[in-house]
Amino acid sequence: RLRVGVALAVAAAALVAGGCGSSAHRSTTASHPATAPDQRALAAKSKPAPKPKPKARRIPTVPAPRSRALRPRRHTAAATGTSNIAPGAPSDAEVARELARAMGYSGGKVSPSTVRDRGILQPDGLVVPPPSAPYAVQAIVTAGNEVARLPYVYGGGHGTWIDSAYDCSGSVSFALANAGFLTTQEDSSQLARFGAPGPGRWVTIYANAGHAYMVVAGIRFDTSGRSGPRGSRWQAAMRTNAGFTVRHPPGL
Fold it and tell me: CA–CA separation, 200 vs 133, rounded Å?
């Protein structure tokens, strides 16, 4: 009986140990879900954090200059008296002076209106009339160019319009006739009574008993000019008109 009791006690102890072992196994198995979240947290911590999106850059605006000296100047017709004038362009007075020198005015002192209405004396001794001149003035210049370089002969151009040489009054008569102011040649004494008294705007005739010449669009037409460098009756230089009667064609 004693041996049977010991055997039963050993068997019971074995059952209890097996049960503990089984229970321990269950608790170990059950503990895995409890440790899984900790492993995921560790895995999440090991991942790199996402980079933040770059912010849009703001382009700074440049404020308008406050200083009046830094602001661009606005050229207006009211402020300058002119319009569409390029900076540094010469003034009307400067242009007039340069043209006056080119056209033969001594010292270049002349008004812009005088330059505009003045003929252009070319190197060959002929004259280009200004575009602003009336047709009659252009006709006088055209005829003057025809005889400007012809020789001087006393009495030349009298008795015939077409001649090989012309004297002072013959030259002037030829040019005036081309514009319709004469139908026959006149000598210098007759030219001293021609037309209207006083200087004209476009044409002025200077005449006395011994000589006659005229100024057309600011250019002198005179036989004395043939001895000059151009060999032409046309010349830019003026001469004294003392002792001459001053006349002009009507309307010019």
Answer: 13
CA gap 152, 73 in Å, rounded: 63
In order, the DSSP letters of 94-127 are: HHHHHHHHHHT-GGG---HHHHHT--EE-TTS-E
Q: Are 222 and 235 in contact (CB under 8 A)?
A: yes
Alpha helices in the chain (DSSP H): 2-46, 77-80, 92-103, 112-116, 135-147, 168-178, 188-191
The tokens for 75 are 């050229």
Count of C-beta atoms within a 10 Å radius of residue 149? 15
The whole-angstrom separation of Cα 193 and Cα 214 is 14
Q: Using CA atoms, how far apart are residues 186 and 158, in angstroms rounded to an integer? A: 8
Report CA 206 to chain centroid distance, whole Å.
Answer: 44
Residue 156 backbone phi and psi in degrees, to 5:
-70, 140
Contact yes or no for 224/238 (Cβ under 8 A): no
**In the structure encoding, which two tokens stand for residue 250, read together?**
């009507």
| Residue for token pair 């830094």 | 70
What is the rounded CA–CA span in Å between residue 144 and residue 130? 15
The angle formed by the CA atoms of residues 117, 122 and 125, to the nearest 5 degrees, is 110
pTM of the full structure: 0.59
**CB environment 219-238: b (16+ within 10 A), e (fewer):** bbbbbebbeeebebbbbbee
- The pLDDT averaged over each successive group of 10 residues in the chain (252 residues) is 49 48 44 53 61 64 52 48 67 71 58 75 94 95 97 96 96 97 97 97 97 97 92 94 96 96
